[in-house]
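To the wet lab folks,

You asked to see what we're planning to order before we commit. Fair enough. Below is the target structure as tokens, and below that is the sequence we designed to fit it. If anything looks off to you, flag it before the synthesis order goes out.
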């Protein structure tokens, strides 16, 4: 079972915030740095996303529409259905975080990795993840404003302006400047990836520092946390089954169904964490907790499924073909006679 090392870093950052939360002037500095980090993240997202590749991928529009429907329609419906679990299994703040989880765009990296491992349609997974990230820049804040309302983070005209300035404007700036900086971004992909992850760790530290100062951990008992894990496991199982058998019902080939399953059942931690810091403000700590748990769960389950799909593909390739073997045998016999 794969344990993402980055999850360990995130948990370590949460522990650091619990022991040494930023207070007073330090909290103001951390908040300002977190705001700048979020803007940098989305600038780099824009600089990385190839507009040409995205446009080329439109030729496989049925697959991309299917993935987007799973990500921004079916997932949120499951999140809304979980409202019935409050307050018996989930507290209201945990439910808010769970609902936000269902609004986040799909991943790019893990969708591609698992699709490749399972011998699926990798180019389709690349485009599907990119489309989802692009749509999520606008769709996730709008869905959050609509479904979470004022209880989610005090959405208002000021909040929407903050979303535009911190998320959309840097992303568009990255797209515009990609023509000049795209080569640099590609050549230094590994270094900039570390900048990405370091920025997210700063966002997590700031969010959980605020939560610790406000007494967040007194709001989550072990029983509630266990209930959250079970609910997320059910949602993940439903999405994995729906994307696989739904793809079959829509008459997609096996390679496309693999791409749909992995791109349509994933949620992006990298996109969700900075969005939560903007959308939820002081309540961001509880909002990102369900997303962090779901991220690790989808990696573990996805790795198992990808290996199984790869074994199935290998078995199909190596399996004997009776009809072809018979024709070959007959032909050989005729030539020898």
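Sequence we intend to order:
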């Amino acid at each position: 079972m794969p344990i993402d090392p980055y999850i360990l870093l995130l948990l370590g950052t949460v522990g650091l915030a619990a022991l040494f939360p930023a207070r007073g002037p330090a909290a103001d500095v951390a908040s300002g740095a977190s705001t700048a980090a979020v803007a940098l993240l989305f600038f780099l997202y824009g600089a990385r996303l190839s507009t040409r590749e995205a446009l080329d991928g439109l030729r496989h529009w049925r697959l991309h529409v299917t993935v987007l429907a799973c990500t921004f329609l079916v997932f949120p419906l499951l999140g809304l259905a979980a409202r019935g679990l409050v307050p018996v299994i989930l507290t209201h703040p945990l439910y808010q975080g769970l609902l936000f989880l269902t609004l986040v765009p799909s991943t790019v990296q893990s969708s591609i990795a698992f699709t490749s491992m399972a011998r699926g349609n990798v180019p389709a997974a690349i485009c599907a993840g990119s489309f989802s990230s692009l749509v999520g820049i606008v769709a996730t804040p709008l869905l959050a404003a609509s479904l979470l309302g004022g209880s989610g983070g005090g959405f208002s005209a000021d909040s929407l302006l903050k979303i535009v300035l911190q998320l959309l404007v840097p992303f568009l700036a990255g797209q515009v400047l990609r023509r000049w900086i795209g080569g640099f971004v590609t050549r230094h992909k590994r270094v900039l990836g570390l900048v990405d992850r370091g920025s997210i760790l700063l966002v997590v530290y700031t969010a959980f520092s605020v939560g610790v100062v406000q007494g967040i951990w007194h709001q989550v008992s072990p029983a509630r946390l266990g209930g959250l894990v079970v609910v997320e496991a059910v949602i993940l199982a439903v999405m994995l089954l729906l994307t696989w058998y739904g793809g079959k019902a829509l008459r997609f080939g096996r390679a496309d169904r693999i791409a749909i399953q992995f791109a349509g059942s994933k949620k992006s931690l990298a996109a969700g964490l900075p969005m939560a810091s903007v959308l939820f403000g002081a309540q961001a700590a509880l909002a990102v907790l369900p997303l962090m748990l779901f991220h690790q769960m989808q990696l573990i389950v996805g790795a198992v499924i990808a290996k199984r799909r790869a074994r199935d593909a290998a078995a199909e390739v190596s399996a004997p073909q009776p009809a072809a073997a018979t024709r070959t045998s007959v032909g050989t016999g005729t030539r020898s006679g």
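Structural context that might help your review: Confidence is low (pLDDT under 50) at residues 324-337. The chain has 15 helices and no strands.

Thanks,
Computational group
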